[in-house]
Specification:
three-stranded antiparallel beta sheet, 71% helix, 3 strands, 107 residues, 5 helices
Length: 107
């Protein structure tokens, strides 16, 4: 009976990830990219101006950062944005999944 529950939980988790992954990549892809930019930058922090150089959409970036701060993925420290533990874990998961699925770099 424990094996049945474990297999059921595993299947449920995989189905949830199957739904969650495309949703975030398609719907909120820029947010994931911002997290990945912060995660891969020197000292794991970037300025808003550095993000603008990459994306050049001030309002889009600001809205996404506001959402990431609200969601607890990113924190603002003066002029710098840093990943929280939750944001770092999310960036690692999506980085792994992109590598695993052999997705091209970029957004």
């Amino acid at each position: 009976q424990i094996i049945s529950y474990t297999v059921g939980l595993l299947i449920y988790g995989l189905l949830f990830f199957t739904y969650l992954h495309p949703h975030y990549i398609n719907e909120r892809g820029i947010s994931v990219r911002v997290c990945m930019e912060i995660a891969t930058s020197p000292a794991s922090q970037v300025t808003f101006e550095e993000l603008l150089k990459k994306y050049n959409h001030e309002k889009l970036i600001q809205n996404r950062i506001d959402d990431l701060i609200y969601g607890g993925f990113v924190e603002c420290n003066g002029n710098f944005y840093r990943l929280t533990k939750k944001g770092a874990m999310t960036a690692k998961i999506f980085s792994f999944s992109r590598k695993f699925l052999n997705c091209p770099p970029g957004y």
